[in-house]
Amino acid sequence: MHAQRVSVRLADGTDALADVDLRLTSATSLGLVGRSGAGKSTLARVLLGLQRPTSGEVLLDGAALPRRRAGLRRFRRCLQYVPQDPAGSLDPRRDVAACLTEPLRSLAIDDDHDSCVERALDAVGLDTTFARRRCSSLSGGQAQRVAIARAIGTGATLLVADEPLSSVDVGLRRDLAALLQHLHVDHGLGLLLITHDLHAVASVCSTAAVLHDGRVVEHGSTAQVLDAPTHPATRALVDASRPGALG
Ligand SMILES: Nc1ncnc2c1ncn2[C@@H]1O[C@H](COP(=O)(O)OP(=O)(O)OP(=O)(O)O)[C@@H](O)[C@H]1O
């Protein structure tokens, strides 16, 4: 997928995104960081086809994202989203299999749905007995895993995760970071991890990009970006993430 020179102009004339150019493949594990209001969620919405850029395009295998909802199906099969509160995105009244099957149905995926559910649960480290568990009976960590399984059950090759670790405690955050890394390394899932948390980027992502006032101001290997920042916005983020720093 290629976000090709994407800009989003706001009503007040400022740019939420300005000329952002990013390529994402199944080999990508990119941490996208930036202070609040930098444009991270706007970029996620544009990549997901939920918001049209003012200029520039999102391309999948060289073809522009279709404007019609139905045309977005093929694209959605490749690219899935994990929201900020993954567990909260599950319907507590339904069982896990029903939650995992819903996107398979809406995306008209022909594969055997039971097998897709089994594979997805296995990939996130849950055994098949979870399929019959009610979502309301899951622990926080299990629900987060199910929500990730729901996203990858479609056979997606790319995952956009917007602050997926911010609503959980430190122990769980470490587990989920390890899971995301495992999905990238062992299952070949491309990852765009949008976060304020530089520690999560350092532990999960091989590359990092810094968004500042809608522009990508730094982009390179995680070590290069976080250990030797060249842009003041990156330095400010790195300083703020040091132990003892406020915020
Ligand atoms: N629906 C909207 N209408 C108008 N302006 C918006 C809207 N959503 C976002 N913005 C503006 O776009 C800019 C980028 O916001 P965005 O939410 O993408 O930043 P962010 O980096 O995700 O911030 P945060 O980390 O706080 O979620 C900000 O100036 C914000 O005020």
UniProtKB/TrEMBL annotation:
A GO MF term: ATP hydrolysis activity
Keywords recorded for this protein, A-Z: ATP-binding, Nucleotide-binding, Transport
Biological process (GO), any one: transmembrane transport
Gene3D superfamilies assigned to the protein according to its UniProt record, in alphabetical order: P-loop containing nucleotide triphosphate hydrolases
Pfam families, A to Z: ABC_tran
PROSITE patterns reported in the protein's UniProt record: ABC_TRANSPORTER_1, ABC_TRANSPORTER_2
Residue stretches making up the ABC transporter domain: 1-238
Family, per entry: Belongs to the ABC transporter superfamily.
Official protein name in the record: ABC transporter domain-containing protein
